[in-house]
Amino acid sequence: MARALPPTSSGAPQPRPATAPAAPGAPQVRPATEGWQQKKDAEGRPLLQFASPKRGKPPEHLADLTPEQRIEKAKELGLPGFRAGQIERHYLTRWTSDPAEMTDLPASGREELVAGLLPPLLTEVRRLDTDKGDTIKFLWKLHDGALVESVLMRYPGRITLCVSSQAGCGMNCPFCATGQAGLTRNMSAAEIVDQVVRANQVIARGELGGKRSTDQSLERVSNIVFMGMGEPLANYARVMQAVRVMTDKKHGMGMSARGITVSTVGLVPAITKLAAEDIPVTFALSLHAPDDELRDELIPVNSRWKVDEALDAARGYFERTGRRVSIEYALIKDMNDHPWRADLLAQKLNARGRGWVHVNPIPLNPTPGSIWTASEPGVQYEFVRRLNAAGIPTTLRDTRGTEIDGACGQLVATEDDRAAASAS
Ligand code: SF4
């Protein structure tokens, strides 16, 4: 792993580079789908789907509601409003939705209250884990049969959950397993939150491996990354409600906003909106290419908002929140890993000031024989070295989860998953 250089101190914007320099030497592999056909619009461009198809709504749940609405709901169910607070604590801090465990609630009406506020949302269909058990991928079935996944990972000093925000995805990226089937529907805020609650239950039961035997501490998910299925900013309102529930100290899970990473392929107006929220989450832009020519093909939403617009919005996020932005960059052999692209990326980031951004290259999962495969280690090293040398803190991320197809761009329901879901 490359050592990240500290950011330099000057915040003064540098002159903007004009265009990409000519590429010397290395071959240029162009993005193309393998084994499936990208849906195209009338002009032959990859289809982008922003609106969620109309489907039956998931049942309304406590985590979809504001604290005031929860009180109203308890009253509608014929109980005093303060009972809503008790249920809230059971579900969001003790991770239970079992009425039998809520002994501080009167027995009469307890079942009805719990059924009204905590309807079941996720059915576990399948679980895959790594040898050491420190990474678990869950496949969940939603009320309408839609399938989503989350991945739980133990790292030294933290436990991270990668959550899904949509069933499927409408952004149609040609390298991405999730995007192939298009967008099934937006997930509700409670369906997003329930992934965290369910993961915390698994941790509490001691089912996540890798814990040191001497460690007696009570554990829970400490970090959340919105890098599972879906484009979170295409489901903005529900994702923000979920983030509020996760971070609310009085009526929610009390998590640190800094430990929550909202990632996007570059929906510029939504990035600006996110910056104006009073919740300093960590913001990550999945850039994957510094030049429009390649990014138009690699990330179809680039046809709507170009590299410079996405970077300006990311810089705006930093200015508004003071939170350093992450640039995610999957390193793909001979496609986007050229030294000149590292230099162009560094130029574009430095042109917007210093100390505001961190780059996380992640080698794509090795896929022998595919055009979508990991860069050579020497190429990865050189890419990282050039960015660091230009004063951009850059750290190669690990590819945890690759052995169970739990890494970014790999979350997709397979035929096996669908068969298991229909049997469950
Ligand atoms: S890479 Fe992300 S934005 Fe692109 S299709 Fe996949 S899930 Fe959607």
From TrEMBL:
<keyword id="KW-0489">Methyltransferase</keyword>
<dbReference type="GO" id="GO:0030488">
    <property type="term" value="P:tRNA methylation"/>
</dbReference>
<protein>
    <recommendedName>
        <fullName>Probable dual-specificity RNA methyltransferase RlmN</fullName>
        <ecNumber>2.1.1.192</ecNumber>
    </recommendedName>
</protein>
<keyword id="KW-0963">Cytoplasm</keyword>
<dbReference type="GO" id="GO:0070040">
    <property type="term" value="F:rRNA (adenine(2503)-C2-)-methyltransferase activity"/>
</dbReference>
<feature type="compositionally biased region" description="Low complexity">
    <location>
        <begin position="17"/>
        <end position="27"/>
    </location>
</feature>
<dbReference type="InterPro" id="IPR007197">
    <property type="entry name" value="rSAM"/>
</dbReference>
<comment type="similarity">
    <text>Belongs to the radical SAM superfamily. RlmN family.</text>
</comment>
<dbReference type="InterPro" id="IPR013785">
    <property type="entry name" value="Aldolase_TIM"/>
</dbReference>
<dbReference type="GO" id="GO:0070475">
    <property type="term" value="P:rRNA base methylation"/>
</dbReference>
<feature type="binding site">
    <location>
        <position position="176"/>
    </location>
    <ligand>
        <name>[4Fe-4S] cluster</name>
    </ligand>
</feature>
<feature type="region of interest" description="Disordered">
    <location>
        <begin position="1"/>
        <end position="63"/>
    </location>
</feature>
<keyword id="KW-0004">4Fe-4S</keyword>
<dbReference type="InterPro" id="IPR004383">
    <property type="entry name" value="rRNA_lsu_MTrfase_RlmN/Cfr"/>
</dbReference>
<dbReference type="InterPro" id="IPR027492">
    <property type="entry name" value="RNA_MTrfase_RlmN"/>
</dbReference>
<feature type="binding site">
    <location>
        <position position="365"/>
    </location>
    <ligand>
        <name>S-adenosyl-L-methionine</name>
    </ligand>
</feature>
<feature type="domain" description="Radical SAM core">
    <location>
        <begin position="155"/>
        <end position="403"/>
    </location>
</feature>
<feature type="active site" description="S-methylcysteine intermediate">
    <location>
        <position position="408"/>
    </location>
</feature>
<feature type="binding site">
    <location>
        <position position="173"/>
    </location>
    <ligand>
        <name>[4Fe-4S] cluster</name>
    </ligand>
</feature>
<dbReference type="Pfam" id="PF04055">
    <property type="entry name" value="Radical_SAM"/>
</dbReference>
<dbReference type="GO" id="GO:0002935">
    <property type="term" value="F:tRNA (adenine(37)-C2)-methyltransferase activity"/>
</dbReference>
<feature type="active site" description="Proton acceptor">
    <location>
        <position position="149"/>
    </location>
</feature>
<dbReference type="GO" id="GO:0000049">
    <property type="term" value="F:tRNA binding"/>
</dbReference>
<feature type="binding site">
    <location>
        <begin position="230"/>
        <end position="231"/>
    </location>
    <ligand>
        <name>S-adenosyl-L-methionine</name>
    </ligand>
</feature>
<dbReference type="GO" id="GO:0019843">
    <property type="term" value="F:rRNA binding"/>
</dbReference>
<dbReference type="GO" id="GO:0046872">
    <property type="term" value="F:metal ion binding"/>
</dbReference>
<feature type="binding site">
    <location>
        <position position="169"/>
    </location>
    <ligand>
        <name>[4Fe-4S] cluster</name>
    </ligand>
</feature>
<keyword id="KW-0808">Transferase</keyword>
<keyword id="KW-0411">Iron-sulfur</keyword>
<dbReference type="InterPro" id="IPR058240">
    <property type="entry name" value="rSAM_sf"/>
</dbReference>
<keyword id="KW-0479">Metal-binding</keyword>
<keyword id="KW-1015">Disulfide bond</keyword>
<keyword id="KW-0949">S-adenosyl-L-methionine</keyword>
<feature type="binding site">
    <location>
        <position position="263"/>
    </location>
    <ligand>
        <name>S-adenosyl-L-methionine</name>
    </ligand>
</feature>
<keyword id="KW-0698">rRNA processing</keyword>
<dbReference type="GO" id="GO:0051539">
    <property type="term" value="F:4 iron, 4 sulfur cluster binding"/>
</dbReference>
<dbReference type="InterPro" id="IPR040072">
    <property type="entry name" value="Methyltransferase_A"/>
</dbReference>
<feature type="binding site">
    <location>
        <begin position="286"/>
        <end position="288"/>
    </location>
    <ligand>
        <name>S-adenosyl-L-methionine</name>
    </ligand>
</feature>
<keyword id="KW-0408">Iron</keyword>
<dbReference type="GO" id="GO:0005737">
    <property type="term" value="C:cytoplasm"/>
</dbReference>
<comment type="function">
    <text>Specifically methylates position 2 of adenine 2503 in 23S rRNA and position 2 of adenine 37 in tRNAs.</text>
</comment>
<keyword id="KW-0819">tRNA processing</keyword>
